[in-house]
Amino acid sequence: MNLDLPPQHAGFRDSVREIAQGVALPLAAEVDRDHRFPEEAVKAAAEAGLMGVLIPREYGGAGLDALAFMLCIDELARACASTSVIVDVHTSVGSEPILLFGSDEQKKRWLPRMASGELLGAFALTEPAAGSDAASLQTSARRNGDGYVLNGTKVFITNIGHAGLYIVFARTGPGERAAGVSAFIVPADSPGVKVGQVFKKMGLNGSPTGELVLEDVAVPTANRLGGEGEGFRVAMRALDSGRIGISGQALGIGQAAVDEATALMKRRAKEQVASPHPADSLREWADLPTWWGGQGEEFWLADMSTRTESARMLAYHAAWLCSAGRPFTREASMAKLHCTDTTMQVALDALQLAGEEGALTGSPFERHVRDAKALQIYEGSNQVQRVVIARDILR
Ligand SMILES: Cc1cc2nc3c(=O)[nH]c(=O)nc-3n(C[C@H](O)[C@H](O)[C@H](O)COP(=O)(O)OP(=O)(O)OC[C@H]3O[C@@H](n4cnc5c(N)ncnc54)[C@H](O)[C@@H]3O)c2cc1C
Fold first, then answer.
1. Is the shortest distance between the CB of 374 and ligand 1 below 6 Å?
2. Which of 211, 282, 356, 370 is the most buried (most CB within 10 A)?
3. Residue nearest to atom 37 of ligand 1 (CA)
4. Gap from CA of 377 to ligand 1 centroid (Å)
5. In a mutational test of the pocket of ligand 1, which residue from 84, 123, 167, 381 has the highest number of ligand atoms less than 8 Å from its CB?
């Protein structure tokens, strides 16, 4: 069994790392502090072809697989979590539904502009009274001649205001709950499409999240994705691969926390030459052997790193299954659940290890903690992942 990354994937990961560390990382603290869209990093990602990682070459994309997509998001998140979620939502739930469910005409019309980054994608499912229970959504799509008229408000929409195109889920028919939902491609410049409140969040501050208001928006039938009543299936399939991206995001943030903790411990080890570590005086006082001391911190680092590596294996497995065209819903949910829970704990442990330095506003340690939290909530909260996994096991 070979668990090495295939050479093509390793090379791709290294090239993304260069952009992420060179362009996104230097901006990370500033976009977090100022709540500003990381324009330069997203532009660099587009120029490197990262906005079209999953889009086939015939539509101007890179034509790579789910594993490459996950590695890309992992590397971006390690540098700047806000940049990673912008690219992630665009690449997976914001454009993959067109790839998976679009007609030839829709693919030709939209995908090349999405692959180049000219059009940023977004996914509009959640409503004020329809979060985990997405099937209860109320946005309506009323038939009108050769098209529909959409009305409703979506909330917590990533890439709000910057997206050129929204994948919108609305109720078309009398069908109950999921059966009455259809999916639509809605260009952001359609009359009646408005940006409502833009939310201030605790983390991922460079990634805009807010309300999408639809007021009598005319959408031609040519912009419906899949058949009438198939929208919920579109959403669930998009979220399956979306969860591979979120796993990558979690791995990146977790690795960044481990990196910071490692640098901190090395720095402290050097400083110790000047002032002894508290463990040294305790050792002398308690007459403990010379090998004792400071291991609490080293063990902590070892545990953080081990947990991150174990989560990585689960994420690679889910991505590999998806790339191989095999069923991967359960594994993607397991990866999302485990990677995001692991990263939340790793980020908290890194901050604890840093002590007062970690608790300062603007320290990377506290940023990683704030950024990690949303990952346990979006693209299906971690409680919902448990429902998905348990149902699949019991089926
Ligand atoms: C930063 C951010 C970005 C987002 N981006 C997008 C986006 O681009 N597009 C989009 O459509 N949505 C987006 N969302 C919305 C996100 O998908 C929802 O927040 C998520 O689905 C949870 O819904 P909710 O917040 O309404 O929680 P609720 O459904 O109200 O749940 C509240 C709590 O109850 C728990 N819970 C719910 N049901 C169960 C159950 N059956 N068993 C046990 N516990 C349960 C949940 O886990 C949660 O902890 C985003 C959210 C955030 C925070």
1. yes
2. 211
3. 132
4. 5
5. 381
Q: Is 209 in the pocket of ligand 1 (CB under 6 A)?
A: yes
Distance (Å) from CA 180 to ligand 1 centroid = 21
Q: Is 121-227 a domain of CATH 3.30.1370.10?
A: no
Written out in words, the top-level CATH class of the domain with range 233-394 is mainly alpha
- The preferred substitution site among 96, 137, 156, 168 for testing ligand 1, maximizing ligand atoms within 8 Å of CB, is 156
Catalytic residues: 379
Query: 314-339: b or e for each residue (b if 16 or more CB lie within 10 Å)?
Result: bbbbbbbbbbeeeebbbbbbbbbbbb
Coil, helix or strand at residue 151: strand
Compute CA distances 207 → 160, 198, 382, whole Å: 9, 11, 21
pLDDT digits (tens, 9 = 90+) for 17-69: 999 999 999 999 999 999 999 999 999 999 999 999 999 999 999 999 999 99
CA distance 32 to 202: 10
Query: Is 123 touching ligand 1 by the criterion CB < 6 Å?
Result: yes
| Res 3: pLDDT | 83
Ligand 1 atom nearest 124 alpha carbon: 11
Rounded to the nearest whole angstrom, what is the distance from the C-alpha of residue 194 to the centroid of ligand 1?
22
- What residues does each domain of the chain span? 7-115, 121-227, 233-394
3-state secondary structure of 311: helix
Decide: 131 in ligand 1 pocket, CB within 6 A: yes
Q: How does pLDDT run across 205-228, given as a tens digit for each residue?
A: 999 999 999 999 999 999 999 999
- 7-115 belongs to which homologous superfamily? Acyl-CoA dehydrogenase/oxidase, N-terminal domain (1.10.540.10)
